[in-house]
């Protein structure tokens, strides 16, 4: 459903969304990688378990929460991709104590 | 018969337009729609009284919308065992109140009363706490006070991820917590659905007082009743004197931080750390004498966070998603004030700095007394007369 606009920078950075490699341009956000990967949801809400994908892309809605490089509940739209970054689904509320 | 007319200095006194407005009569007027006023109004409506609840608008100081949500017993009433008894009575009424509100409104107030702990971060704190609890147990006499001072090793079994800085805690079985916003909403809804009249944007700015005959002016009209309950939080300081009452309450600021939601870790509330039903962890709460100032201050917020991280190091990994400050409603000795005016019988005051904890008592014990027109002798020690005792030279 989502593709990077052709005129922008080439997709050169490889990240892993739920384990699958995705190429995104340098400077893109982890949320962009999530959308490009075509997942049906990146998180489920803690109370009702309702599925969510990145929405506002500007840090206010928290619908893009993901586990990024092992850290839970990060706002994917506020995180710039880095080579090899691992972006995984956030299942409900995070564990506080593991 | 004595009759006194008055106006608050900052309000329009008896604006002419009001004179032409119709007066709304009722059995009783409650001034203040915070937790205290709403609990009493709900209780009065339950007693069958036609009850009008007058409240200010959104700019008001409202402790009821910014508090920590503990239903807390263990440390209440040091040197004042009647306050321990009243508080414990309220904790005992809470399950009934929660069930009643849930049945009437469908709102879950998230009450949990699994017992609670006060964490001590040094031997000195642990000793002081132990002495205080022992003294309170002595003061409680036959009424009793169940508590334990628990050392670190045993405590670590009770509280996952306890920090190494915690040397121990006091524990009592009476403590708990609830959602204060759900409580406020449920009280309001139960009150109005039972036929009570809630009038917002109705700051009481003037009126007349006579025994069992009260009339008050607000921007929303004139209201009259043979009984009036002043439950206006910090607003009571100005209102009480015109009804022959005295409530010398002052603001005391508290700051609170809230983390993102996490899966349930904490099985019980601590005095300054609790995990809500939704999973957020609330960190509180400072006690600052700064007058009517609801700003936040980074040094105090840092202190709150630091103490939480010492208590449970894993909390430091969580994001803070909200923070705020609110003003407690404090009497000079920190105890509630309940009174009926001698000069103008029918006028009552109710003030406290633990409106969540005491909601059970206010709705189910105090309101019936007000409906009967007489405060029980158990409330005598809470009269503001205690402030009139001349200080020893
Ligand atoms: C930081 C903090 C933490 C707290 N933690 C806890 C806790 O863990 N457990 C607990 O039990 N308690 C706690 N409290 C205390 C609790 O919040 C208060 O005891 C309680 O909210 C007081 O309720 P109230 O109705 O008296 O006052 P308020 O909530 O201040 O309500 C007073 C109402 O009266 C209205 N009013 C004022 N003047 C007038 C007027 N002239 N005419 C009409 N209306 C008027 C105002 O608009 C307001 O709505 C805490 C408080 C703070 C600030
Ligand atoms: S998409 Fe809304 S906060 Fe990230």
Describe the protein:
Chain A: It holds the Pfam family Fer2_4. Chain A: It comes from Neoroseomonas marina. Chain A: GO terms for molecular function: iron-sulfur cluster binding; oxidoreductase activity. Chain A: Keywords: Oxidoreductase. The complex is a heterodimer of chains A (98) and B (393). With 98 residues, chain A is mainly β. Chain A has one domain (12-89): 2Fe-2S iron-sulphur cluster binding domain, sarcosine oxidase, alpha subunit, N-terminal domain (Ubiquitin-like (UB roll), Roll), CATH 3.10.20.440. Chain A has one helix and seven strands. Chain A has one helix at 30-37, and strands spanning 11-17, 20-25, 43-44, 51-52, 65-68, 71-75, 86-91. Chain A is globular. The mean pLDDT of chain A is 92. By secondary structure, chain B is α/β, with parallel strands linked by helices. Chain B folds into three domains: 4-65 and 181-248 and 333-387, FAD/NAD(P)-binding domain; 116-173, no CATH class; 250-330, D-Amino Acid Oxidase, subunit A, domain 2 (D-Amino Acid Oxidase, Chain A, domain 2), CATH 3.30.9.10. Chain B has helices at 16-20, 35-46, 81-105, 123-140, 152-158, 180-193, 236-239, 298-311, 359-372; strands at 4-7, 23-25, 28-31, 51-54, 70-71, 116-120, 148-151, 168-172, 176-177, 197-199, 206-210, 213-218, 221-225, 228-230, 250-259, 273-275, 281-283, 320-330, 337-340, 347-351. In chain B, the strands form five sheets. A six-stranded mixed β-sheet of chain B has the order 10-4-3-14-20-19, with helices on one face. Chain B has a five-stranded mixed β-sheet with strand order 1-11-12-13-2, with no helix packed on it. The two termini of chain B are 39 Å apart. Chain A binds chain B through residues 46-47, 73, 92-97, and chain B through 160-161, 260-263, 265, 278-279, 281, 314-315, 317-319. The complex binds flavin-adenine dinucleotide and FE2/S2 (inorganic) cluster. The site of FE2/S2 (inorganic) cluster has 13 residues of chain A, from loops.
């Amino acid at each position: 459903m989502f593709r990077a606009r052709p005129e922008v920078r080439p997709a050169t950075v490889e990240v892993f969304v739920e384990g699958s490699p995705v190429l995104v341009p340098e400077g893109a956000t982890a949320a962009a990688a999530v959308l490009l990967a075509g997942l049906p949801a990146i998180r489920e809400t803690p109370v009702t378990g309702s599925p969510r994908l990145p929405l506002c892309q500007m840090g206010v809605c928290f619908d893009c929460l993901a586990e990024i490089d092992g850290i839970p509940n990060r706002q994917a739209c506020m995180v710039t991709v880095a080579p090899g970054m691992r972006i995984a689904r956030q299942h409900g509320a995070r564990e506080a104590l593991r | 018969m004595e009759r006194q007319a008055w106006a608050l200095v900052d309000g329009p006194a008896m604006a002419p337009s009001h004179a032409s407005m119709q007066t709304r009569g009722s059995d009783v007027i409650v001034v203040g729609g915070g937790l205290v006023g709403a609990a009493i109004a709900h209780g009065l409506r339950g007693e069958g009284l036609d009850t009008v609840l007058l409240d200010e608008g959104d700019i008001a100081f409202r402790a009821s919308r910014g508090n920590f949500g503990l239903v807390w017993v263990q440390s209440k009433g040091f040197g004042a065992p009647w306050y321990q008894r009243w508080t414990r009575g309220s904790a005992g009424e809470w399950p009934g109140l929660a069930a009643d509100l849930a049945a009437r409104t469908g709102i879950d107030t998230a009450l949990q009363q699994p017992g609670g702990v006060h964490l001590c971060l040094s031997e000195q704190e642990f000793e002081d706490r132990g002495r205080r609890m022992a003294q309170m147990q002595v003061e409680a006499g036959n009424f009793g006070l169940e508590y334990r001072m628990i050392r670190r090793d045993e405590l670590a079994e009770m509280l996952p991820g306890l920090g190494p800085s915690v040397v121990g805690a006091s524990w009592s079985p009476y403590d708990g917590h609830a959602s204060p916003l759900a409580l406020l909403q449920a009280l309001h809804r139960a009150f109005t659905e039972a036929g009570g009249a809630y009038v917002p944007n109705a700051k009481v700015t003037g009126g007349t007082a006579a025994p069992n005959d009260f009339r008050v002016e607000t921007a929303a009209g004139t209201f009259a009743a043979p009984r009036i309950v002043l439950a206006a939080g910090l607003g009571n300081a100005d209102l009480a004197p015109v009804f022959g009452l005295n409530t010398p309450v002052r603001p005391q600021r508290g700051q609170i931080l809230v983390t993102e939601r996490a899966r349930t870790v904490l099985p019980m509330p601590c005095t300054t750390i609790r995990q809500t039903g939704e999973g957020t962890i609330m960190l509180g709460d400072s006690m600052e004498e700064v007058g009517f100032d609801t700003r936040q201050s980074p040094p105090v917020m840092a202190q709150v966070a630091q103490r939480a991280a010492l208590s449970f190091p894993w909390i430091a990994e969580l994001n803070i998603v909200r923070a705020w400050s609110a003003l407690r409603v404090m009497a000079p000795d920190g105890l509630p004030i309940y009174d009926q005016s001698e000069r103008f019988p029918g006028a009552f005051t109710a003030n406290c700095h633990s409106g969540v904890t005491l909601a059970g008592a206010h709705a189910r014990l105090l309101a019936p007394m007000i409906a009967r027109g007489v405060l029980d002798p158990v409330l005598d020690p809470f009269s503001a007369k205690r402030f009139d005792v001349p200080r020893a030279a």
